[in-house]
Design goal:
With 181 residues, the chain is of the alpha/beta class. It has two domains: 138 residues, Trna Endonuclease, Chain: A, domain 1, CATH 3.40.1350.10; 36 residues, no CATH class. Helix content is 48%, strand content 16%. It has eight helices and five strands. It has a five-stranded mixed beta sheet with strand order 1-2-3-4-5. It is elongated, with a radius of gyration of 23 Å.
């Protein structure tokens, strides 16, 4: 399996509510300073550069976690409405899946960039941000790993112990022998 495909699968392992935090951390990893636009990091401003000799770049980032359907033009238009008329240089819409053709056409505007799941995976690879991603996947998070070890695994073992006698008594092999007799 190609590295990009592995990363795409991992993107779908991120909890829906944590996707915005992941994208925020990814932009921070790229050297941006993050300003929470709405206090929840669902939409946030990312500022890079600035100082005495050069101006800064300000991006408005909108992460849209989607599993099973595409981001459409109305989703992108809602983000364009958030521009507030302030110092935003670029609007970036990020998703885990794909964009409809109408949403992709919004990218023809100079200040709009849309990143689908494959492009997001490429960005993670190009920026060497696999570690950022691993903090949000079940296999990468220490807390999630501990939950898996001390909660999920014992529940699976208990279910197996409870279900085993029923499988032995009423399993498909025993059904065939009962009909033969």
């Amino acid at each position: 399996m190609e590295k990009r495909d592995e990363i795409r699968e991992e993107l779908f392992e991120i909890d829906t509510n944590e996707f915005s935090d992941f994208v925020s951390d990814l932009w921070e990893h790229q050297g941006y300073d993050i300003e929470d636009a709405d206090g929840r990091r669902a939409t946030f401003k990312a500022v890079k550069g600035g100082g005495f000799l050069r101006s800064s770049t300000t991006e408005l980032i909108q992460p849209l976690y989607r599993e099973g359907y595409k981001v459409d033009k109305s989703d992108v238009n809602r983000v364009l409405d958030l521009r507030w008329g302030d110092d935003i240089d670029e609007i970036v819409v990020v998703t885990t899946t794909e964009f409809t053709d109408g949403a992709r056409k919004q990218e023809k505007r100079e200040e709009v960039t849309v990143l689908n799941g494959e492009e997001l995976a490429d960005l993670i690879i190009d920026e060497g941000a696999e570690r950022v991603l691993s903090r949000y996947t079940p296999n990468g998070s220490l807390l999630k790993g501990l939950v898996e070890l001390f909660v999920i695994l014992p529940l699976r073992i208990a279910w197996f112990i409870v279900a085993l006698p029923f499988k032995l008594l009423f399993g498909p092999e025993n059904q065939e022998t009962a009909h033969e007799e």
